[in-house]
Design goal:
Elements lengths: L3 E4 L5 H14 L14 H9 L5 E5 L2 H13 L3 E5 L4 E5 L5 H13 L9 E7 H16 L19 H16 L3 E4 L14 E4 L6 H4 L6 E7 L2 H9 L3 E2 L1 E5 L3 H10 L4 E4 L14 E2 L2 E2 L4 H7 L21
Parallel strand pairs: 1-2, 2-3, 4-5, 4-10, 5-8, 7-8, 10-11
Antiparallel strand pairs: 3-13, 6-7, 9-12
Amino acid sequence: LGNTILLKHASNTPQCGIAMAQLFADAGFPDGVYTNLTVSAPQIRGIIERPEVQAVSLTGSNAAGASVGEIAGRNVKKTVLELGGSDPFIVLDGHNFERTIEAAVVGRMHNMGQSCVSAKRMIVMSDVFDRFVSALADRMAALEPGDPADESTTVAPLSTERAADALLEQIQDALDKGAKAVVGGHRIDRPGAFVAPTLLTGVTPAMRAYAEELFGPVAVVYRVDDDAEAVELANSSPFGLGGAVFGVDTDRAHAVADQLQCGMVWINHPTSSEPNLPFGGIKRSGYGRELSQLGMREFANQKLVATITSDAPIRDALG
């Protein structure tokens, strides 16, 4: 595999790094096979450029991905980029409605929406739209803020004050241009970077919330009249990480999933990850795959050794 540097966003690096190091130790790997470095952004260039580093895997923003890809490209080093996402969550019908709502809450609110594969855009058929919005709004409004170390807490703060301010600017832009906050849309009045769980309707392409990733507890719900409109809206995003399609008719759900421009689609379950399944996206969500055999091969040298018998005729490649 050679030497690969894995870059993670600063907000989760210490915990992630400690856990990864322990996993390697528990599996019996020698010391030093995995080393966690907490470094500043300016130091990353020097690390990537070192001859000992042969490949780079980044989980981060589009800006970080573009920068890392540029540095690695100039040094002819392989990269895997797992960047932002604005995953569609398509609801085709009202069957198993309570389960679909539960999936929407889990898919959107996991890690307070601070996940690249959160279900950020709910695309719902007209005949179930009003019921869906009402039920999801009720569930989001019932969530309670508190200490994130307390297991009873259902609304935790965002990673930083900067992240909370940026999300609120996106929300306010949508509201100023005519969107409606069915619930939320504001800070929670308590210490910490808390943003109220928010459900927006009436979002249009003129608003930042239409094309930008909302990295926090904000769901945007769209009304569509048929499958073709749902697919067109889902594919209008510059991102293409994951997606989810909910419907009792799995043939219909598969037909919709086949048309989605993204790296992975889950049917009747929020977009997720499993160690045996490839994980990654297309478009501005990056390239390459993590996990599964595909992930293992990303940084493996797929080397050819061809053996020809010594008395075989020499093939003239020049013709």
